[in-house]
Design brief:
By secondary structure, this protein is an all-alpha fold. Helices cover 72% and strands 2% of the residues. The chain has one domain (6-497). It has helices at 6-21, 28-46, 78-101, 108-127, 131-149, 155-186, 191-200, 205-222, 231-237, 240-265, 273-295, 300-321, 324-355, 371-384, 391-405, 409-433, 450-465, 472-475, 479-488, 492-497, and strands at 55-58, 73-76.
Length: 500
């Protein structure tokens, strides 16, 4: 239990230490950044053994008084552990990839400082037990992300970062307004305590308005249609390691996780059929429109960005079904997409690193010169397209099955159609970039450096093995506890604070 604050304290400390010691020790930022990320990954894996329990940590020893939380509380349960595992495992592999990749940029020390702040912010969002501190950590992540998108300081990066800041700031304003009204209504910001108060309210009109504000704000953070305008510019413009973090992790933590935590465990989504319908509509719209927009792209990273919109649509759609099977499919696809999209953006980074081009019309035949990058990209593309027996096939199968089982056969059919379109645009990507005939301009291209290849190989192996998560012994230790937390809904309060 006392290890819970380390997820925030350690990376925050590193963010202050790295720029100081990097002045005197050459390569300190690379070493320190990767060691910190490795430590956080190990700590996340260690906590898996506690996935079936709900633990909490009182900051400053401000414990419960008559069962009511007074101070700041950090909470660890099955859903928290799954998200921490995603954030910190992807974070470590991306940090390893950045050792070589970011050497082409100036001020690598500033990159690792911002990266540590981003990781600390995401970990803080996941473990926060109260709404205001969740917002504080969300802003730490967002501000670090704005700077990292603009890290290349070229016109394209600065424009994308500005658009990201404007829409991200709008989302934050809506969320902060929602928090103010939330506090006015329930007189507490502790999530568990608030869920009890909300359940006892006779007039929930104010909470419906708060729910609309939160839904809009966090949908902007997760880039759901039609709140997606910032993502197609921000993700391609950012350095590849940051693109991997943004698509693989950030939009899941700041958007999807917060939506699920608030609407299932605080508001009680089962008691809000209108919001559940909005989840289904936004999810369906995102998965279909995102897929069609990806199909028409010629920029490799822009295609992957639109693909993220589509795949997040699958996740939100699955949660909108509200059934245990739908929740399982949503969490499983969240895990699959985090691994696969991080891998694909690292693949694109390796291609840009060697060819200095993202234009698919100018690329081709690179698998002969870059076999590791090409092979791992094919594996990720097959899984993302839902080709058996890859992990992506099983998560999409569960989502479609859940849609049919809950009486939504048309929506299940739309999910299948979107998956077929996904296969089409990933086939286009592979043909244009790695297969076909190589142009003379790239005859001297070689494979990416070893430290860039290692993360890609590890992620490819993980993507192949993700199907094993459905084995009962593995599912019960990782996915099962997270599903149970969401499925239990408002029981979250009793698990955190004890009996009523």
């Amino acid at each position: 239990m006392n290890g819970i604050p380390l997820f925030v304290v350690v990376p925050l400390g590193a963010a202050f230490i790295i720029p100081i010691f990097s002045r005197w020790i050459k390569g300190f930022s690379d070493i320190a950044g990767n060691l910190i990320c490795a430590f956080l990954m190990g700590l996340s894996i260690y906590f898996i053994q506690n996935a079936g329990q709900t633990q909490h940590y009182f900051v400053g020893d401000w414990e419960l008084i008559d069962g009511i939380p007074i101070g700041i509380m950090m909470v660890m349960d099955g859903l928290t552990i799954l998200m921490l595992l995603v954030v910190n495992c992807i974070g470590f592999l991306v940090s390893l990839f950045a050792v070589h990749y970011m050497s082409r940029y100036t001020d690598k020390e500033k990159y690792y400082t911002l990266f540590m702040l981003m990781v600390a912010g995401m970990n803080g969002v996941v473990i926060s037990g109260d709404l205001f501190n969740l917002f504080v950590f969300l802003e730490i992540t967002a501000i670090a992300s704005y700077a990292l998108v603009a890290f290349g300081v070229e016109a394209e990066e600065l424009e994308a970062s500005f658009k990201y800041q404007v829409l991200g700031g709008t989302a934050s304003a809506l969320i902060l307004l929602g928090i103010a009204i939330f506090y006015l209504q329930v007189k507490t910001l502790n999530l568990a305590d608030a869920s009890r108060v909300i359940s006892s309210l006779s007039d929930k009109t104010g909470m419906v308005f708060v729910g609309v504000l939160f839904l809009t704000g966090f949908s902007l953070k997760s880039a759901l249609m039609p709140f997606h305008a910032w993502l197609p510019d921000a993700h391609p413009s950012a350095p590849a390691p940051i693109s991997a973090m943004l698509s693989g992790v950030v939009i899941k933590v700041l958007g999807v996780y917060t939506l699920v935590r608030l609407f299932f465990n605080v508001f009680g989504l089962q008691n809000m059929p209108a919001i559940q319908t909005v989840f289904l509509v936004l999810g369906t719209l995102s998965m279909v429109v995102g897929a069609f927009l990806a199909l028409g792209q010629k920029d490799m990273k822009r295609l992957l960005a639109y693909s993220s919109i589509s795949q997040v649509g699958y996740i939100v759609f699955a949660f909108g079904l509200g059934t245990p099977l739908g929740i399982l499919g949503g969490l499983f696809h969240l895990l699959n997409h985090s691994v696969l999209k991080s891998l694909l953006f690292l693949n694109s980074g390796a291609v840009v690193y060697e060819t200095e081009s993202r234009d698919m019309d100018k690329l081709g035949g690179l698998i002969h010169k870059m076999p590791v990058t090409g092979t791992t990209s094919v594996i990720a593309s097959l899984s993302m397209s839902g080709i058996p027996p890859m992990g992506g096939f099983f998560s999409k199968l569960i989502i479609v099955w859940a849609a049919l089982d809950s009486g939504h056969p048309v929506l299940g059919g739309i999910a299948v159609l979107a998956s077929i379109i996904t296969l089409a645009y990933y086939a286009k990507l592979q043909k244009s970039v790695f297969l076909g005939e190589m142009t003379t301009a790239f005859k001297k291209v070689k494979e990416a450096p070893v430290l860039m290849c290692i993360p890609m190989v590890i992620l490819a192996i993980v993507s192949i093995g993700l199907g094993l998560l459905l084995l009962p012994s593995v599912k019960d230790s990782l996915l099962g506890p997270a599903v149970q937390v969401i499925q239990d809904g408002l029981k979250y309060a009793d698990k955190v604070l004890g009996g009523p």
